């Protein structure tokens, strides 16, 4: 198989001997991560239910097509078409890895759907579908792998979060809540499992994919933004995911990264910004007259992701 420049310099592929499960890898970001991990020596379980962007329908073609690509490169891969929203799916995916390759070392939680809508118009079905695939799905697959990672005292989780949750976005309450939940899930896994040499990190990817293709283009500004986002291909996300899954990132856990074209960001995590103290305690009136005025200068603005990442992709 072809090697990356770093691997060529070192003579050793970064994921040699490792087995990775990549959910939602029949296309987009997941496909490029699966291919990149295979190029770096990983044997890959390619999971994709073959659903539409809204989560409807199934098709085993996408997963098998990526398996065929990996095999054409000289790598090893198997297809899995379980839905991550199913509580038993994670167990079946891990069993697939163990049955096919004898171990599991890496879980990439990438599977996702969108069912956008303004919060005041959102239905329970829209909320449940997105939470189940993104947040429950990340939990199901991670939990299934956790005991194996614990027993072998090694393992790595890479979860896909989003600036829609970390910063904010209009019309995506379900997606944003799930993605913020995934960031907290990753941090909890990192804290709970570091004693077993198990790592967990997040990536907030900027990439033109089926999800971005669904964004509205009703105004010139929206069309211009989508055109800029088209420059960010899914392949730009894969190098960070591969590195985080490798032993080269052995000291990296509990972090949140973002990738935007050729830029990699380390994202902040909530910490106290400023405090006020009142020795005699607080009344509602004192909060209004003292606490809020003292804290107001440090209020966070009501930003969307595009307000913070406002420059053209580099």
Number of E-state strands: 8
Residue windows where pLDDT falls under 50 for at least 5 positions: 2-9
Indicate the CATH topology: Rossmann fold
**Mean of the pLDDT scores?**
91
At CATH's second level, what is the architecture?
3-Layer(aba) Sandwich
- Class, according to the CATH hierarchy? Alpha Beta
CATH superfamily: NAD(P)-binding Rossmann-like Domain
Tally of discrete structural domains: 1
Spatial shape: globular
Q: Which bin fits the share of residues in helices?
A: 40-55%
Class from helix and strand fractions: alpha/beta
Helix and strand sequence: HEHEHEHEHEHHEHHHEEHH
* Strand residue percentage: 5-15%
Largest sheet: 8 strands, mixed
Enumerate the strands of the largest sheet in spatial order, edge to edge or round the barrel.
3-2-1-4-5-6-7-8
Please render the helix and strand layout as text:
Blueprint: H1 5-10, E1 19-22, H2 28-39, E2 43-47, H3 61-72, E3 77-80, H4 89-101, E4 106-109, H5 124-152, E5 155-160, H6 163-166, H7 173-193, E6 198-206, H8 210-213, H9 220-229, H10 238-245, E7 256-260, E8 263-266, H11 284-295, H12 305-308
Parallel strand pairs: 1-2, 1-4, 2-3, 4-5, 5-6, 6-7
Antiparallel strand pairs: 7-8
List keywords for this structure.
alpha/beta; Rossmann fold; eight-stranded mixed β-sheet; 8 strands; disordered N terminus
Describe the structure.
InterPro entries: KR_dom (IPR057326), NAD(P)-bd_dom_sf (IPR036291), Peroxisomal_Beta-Oxidation (IPR051687), Sc_DH/Rdtase_CS (IPR020904), SDR_fam (IPR002347). Residues 18-211 form the Ketoreductase domain. With 314 residues, the chain is α/β, with parallel strands linked by helices. The chain has one domain: Rossmann fold, CATH 3.40.50. The protein is built from twelve helices and eight strands. It has helices spanning 5-10, 28-39, 61-72, 89-101, 124-152, 163-166, 173-193, 210-213, 220-229, 238-245, 284-295, 305-308, and strands spanning 19-22, 43-47, 77-80, 106-109, 155-160, 198-206, 256-260, 263-266. An eight-stranded mixed sheet has the order 3-2-1-4-5-6-7-8, with helices on both faces. Strand 4, helix 5 and strand 5 (155-160) form a beta-alpha-beta unit. Helix 2 (28-39) crosses helix 10 (238-245) and helix 4 runs parallel beside helix 5. The longest helix has 29 residues, at 124-152. The two termini are 30 Å apart. Residues 2-9 have low confidence and may be disordered.
């Amino acid at each position: 198989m072809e090697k990356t420049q770093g691997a060529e310099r070192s003579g050793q592929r970064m994921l040699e001997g490792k087995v990775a499960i990549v959910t939602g890898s029949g296309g987009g970001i997941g496909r490029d991560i699966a291919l990149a991990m295979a190029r770096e020596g990983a044997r890959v379980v390619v999971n994709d239910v073959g659903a539409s962007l809204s989560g409807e329908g199934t098709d085993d073609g996408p997963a098998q097509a990526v398996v065929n690509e990996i095999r054409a490169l000289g790598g090893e891969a198997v297809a899995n078409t379980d839905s991550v929203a199913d509580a038993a799916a994670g167990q079946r995916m891990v069993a697939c890895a163990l049955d096919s390759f004898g171990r599991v070392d890496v879980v990439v939680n990438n599977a996702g759907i969108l069912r956008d809508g303004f919060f005041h118009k959102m239905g329970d079905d829209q909320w449940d579908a997105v939470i189940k695939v993104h947040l429950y799905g990340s939990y199901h697959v991670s939990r299934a792998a956790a005991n194996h990672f614990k027993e072998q005292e090694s393992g790595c989780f890479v979860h896909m979060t989003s600036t829609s949750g970390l910063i904010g976005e209009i019309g995506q309450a379900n997606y944003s809540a799930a993605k913020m939940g995934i960031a907290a899930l990753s941090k909890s896994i990192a804290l709970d499992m570091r004693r077993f040499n198990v790592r967990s990190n997040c990536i907030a990817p900027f990439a033109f994919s089926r999800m971005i293709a669904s964004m509205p283009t009703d105004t010139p500004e929206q069309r211009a933004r989508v055109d800029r986002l088209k420059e960010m291909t899914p392949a730009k996300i894969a190098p960070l995911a591969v590195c985080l899954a490798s032993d080269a990132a052995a000291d990296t856990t509990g972090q949140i990264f973002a990738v935007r074209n050729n830029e990699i960001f380390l994202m902040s995590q909530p910490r106290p910004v400023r405090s006020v103290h009142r020795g005699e305690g607080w009344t509602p009136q004192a909060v209004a007259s003292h606490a809020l005025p003292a804290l107001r200068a440090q209020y966070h603005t009501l930003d969307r992701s595009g307000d913070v990442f406002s420059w053209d992709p580099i």
